Amino acid sequence: MIIIATFCLVAALLAGVGIGLLLNKKVGVNFSNDNRSKDTDKNSSNSTAENNQYFNFSNRTFLLLANSLPTYLVIIKNDGTVLFVNETFKTFIGDNLPTFKINWLSFVSKNDVDRVKTKWRSAVKSNQSISFEYRFDDGKGLIQHIETFLTPITNPNSGEIVWFASSINNSKLEDFKNQLEQLAAKREGILQNMEDGFISVTEDLFVDYVNFRAEIMLQLPQNCIGMKLKETTRFFEEPDILAHIKYALNNTSSDNFEFSYKGCDYFIRIYPTATGLSFYFQDITSEKSSRNELKLLRTAIDKANDVVLITTAELEKPGPTVVYANEAFERVTGYSRQDIIGQSPRLLQGKETERKNLDVLKNALQSSEPVRVLLTNYSKDGQAYFNEVDISPIIDKSGVTTHFVAIERDISKQKEQEDLAFRAHKMDSIGLVTGGVAHDFNNLLTIILGNCEILSSQLENQNENKSQEYLHAISDATRQGVSLTRSLLAFSKRQPFNKNTVVIDNILTSVIPLIKTALGAQFEFTLSDECSNRKLAGDHAQLESMFLNMAINARDAMDCKGSFSISIKDKVVKEADKLSQYLNPANYTLIQFKDSGKGMTPEVIDKIFDPFFSTKALTKGTGLGLSMIYSYVDQCSGYIAVESKINQGTTFNVYLPAGNTVENDQDKQQKLIQEQDLVTDFTGKTVLITEDTQMVAKVACHIFNELGFNVLLATDGLEALDLFEENPQIDLLFTDIILPNGLTGKDVANRIKESVPTLPVIFTSGFTDGKLKHDDYQTTNTEFLQKPYTKKALVETVNLITFS
Question: pLDDT: is 794 or 486 the higher one?
Fold first, then answer.
């Protein structure tokens, strides 16, 4: 506006002076289709003196005024001829002035030239003032933004018109405007592309700006600019939101808070501005979920069963120190978290901590590598426990180890279970070998016993008393061998196990006198029987052997004097009991053997149930007693534990399943045999004997022949099946379990019973190798006879059979 006023003032001054025409030389400017007929013809003729006086551009006053203007002043005729330029414009255009005077339109940017032509023609035609903007191109790459004001001046004498073109250079202003526009666009881009919502309102709470993210987050209507804030969405009708807006308005200070709306969590900042309020919205749903997840994770770690420790990564002395410990640390170690925070984890180590494993741990930490080691740690009360320790480095983005996290699991119970499993596997391996030896030995004993009985029967008829004594000695020695092999087989678990109902009173009646005799008068013996259930699930002979073995071991451990006691009581094992890791929840009978002997070291206790391990002199024991007891208890689905300290005696706790109160079938059958005379004449009956050892088969054939049986003998299963095909009317199958050529005695019995389902069967073996189970001979007319057997045992077993 100031420039326009200045231009008008200059024009008025020029008009008052009445300057004449100074230029009479025609300078053409190329305008296509220009209408220049009248003025051009007049200017081309000889100018009059009057005209020269009116347009006098060399007038001193005019020049002084025109050249003092800060704007560019150019005077142009209707035909485009440049009549005058002021010094300011000359400075601006420089060497291009001659070209400008010839064709000033050539300096207009190509993009603007048509528009400028149109403006110029319109002005010439209407003889009215006009203004327009365009870009001035000097042809050398310099573009200037020019605003020109055209004002026509008419010679009243001749009617000739000239145009005063006053121009200002807006390039700096245009640059500033461009910068402002760029800043505005940048701000708009930032606000529109930011992940957070932004709204600004006036003091009257009318929306004057909202970005795209705010529209999405709050589900605002389109074109909400100018709307009352609370009318845009129900979000701004929430009482809590209104209260925060009121606070920001009244206190002219920002207000920060979190707010939940339609399942989303927001962090909101409201702050005053010069024109009203601005709202900043950040969707923290994911962040809050992460915070909650982190809180949950911390809670889970705190409640975990395993110990979790986080330490610094400082390896120089004093080494890593604990910065975090979970609740399990207190429960497992007895230390409080305050005891360990800031301290070294070495607080848990002690004299038995494995130094070799500590070296492995140290090397891994120095290399920032994960490591797993087994360590013996100590609780606050000094109790050792076995620990599995997993340590992993925590490495930041730059590759620097900042912390170590250790997960420690108390595996004391697991290690105890592994030791038990290892011991069971070891016992099983030894038992396999032992059972094989016992099998062959049983066959030899069967031959010796059988032939002794045959020879004894023959000598009785000849009154050979002296020879009878020798035979009895052989028989007694053989029976001791039988007892030993049966113990070996019981230990090896390679014979069918008779888990019958045993009456405690019967055991005590038979074994207590033997115990008193074995102990002698110098040892004190006491028996405490508080058991209400008077029956056990087990084997009578094995139980007797267990009682007697325990007494003899106690006697040997006490040297010349001491006390030995047996305590029998009920025991109920529940799921929550510590014993439930060894026993199924049920009713048990606890038999406790306690002596006041010299006790055992932990190293000896670890081997006490190993076969052939003994602390006695070679002449005092075989080392099989406790291993056979262990095997027997295990087969009974029981458990045996030992407690001992040097010079404080030893206690064995044996847990055996309580027996049924109902009398089993075998008990009834044994009573039946005892109550009636044995049948020894089976004339007319046929027995099929399957036995691969020739001398054993000979003994069996002799006994069955004496009982009146017709005997068919097969040496393997295939031969037995062939004999059955030829003689289908057999009355009894007497078969060994382990046979050559692929078929077992059980296979033979099953094949024959397909044809004769009711056929009586007696299985016999010195070593079944697991091929015959207890249930296999619990069916009707099926029995088992353990090798080596006597004639009496065989007759008793045959009497259990019911023949059709």
Answer: 794
Q: How would you label 727-737 residue by residue, b for 16+ Cβ within 10 Å and e otherwise?
A: eeebbbbbbbb
Residue at 769: amino acid letter: D
Residue of 128, 167, 166, 153 whose CA lies nearest to 39: 153
What is the average pLDDT value for the chain, to the nearest integer?
80
The span from the CA of 556 to the CA of 554, in Å, is: 5
For residue 126, give the nearest of 161, 157, 81 by alpha carbon.
Answer: 161
Q: How far is CA 349 from CA 310, 325, 335, 735, in A?
A: 17, 17, 13, 63
Range with lowest mean pLDDT among 267-281, 661-675, 758-772: 661-675
- DSSP structure string for 736-761: ESS-STT--HHHHHHHHHTT-TT--E
pLDDT tens for 585-636 read: 999 999 999 999 888 888 888 878 777 667 665 545 556 678 778 877 888 8
> Both ends of the chain: CA-CA distance in Å?
140
Spatial contact of 308 and 288, defined as CB atoms under 8 Å apart:
no
pLDDT at 682 over 60: yes
Count CA atoms closer than 13 A to 51's CA, side-chain side: 17
Tell me the angle at which helices 465-492 and 625-635 cross, rounded to the nearest 10 degrees. Answer: 60
Tell me how far apart the alpha carbons of residues 532 and 572 are, in angstroms, rounded to a whole number: 12
**Three-class SS of residue 673?**
helix
pLDDT at 642: 92
**What distance in Å separates the CA atoms of residue 209 and residue 190, rounded to the nearest whole number?**
13
pLDDT higher than 50, residue 19: no
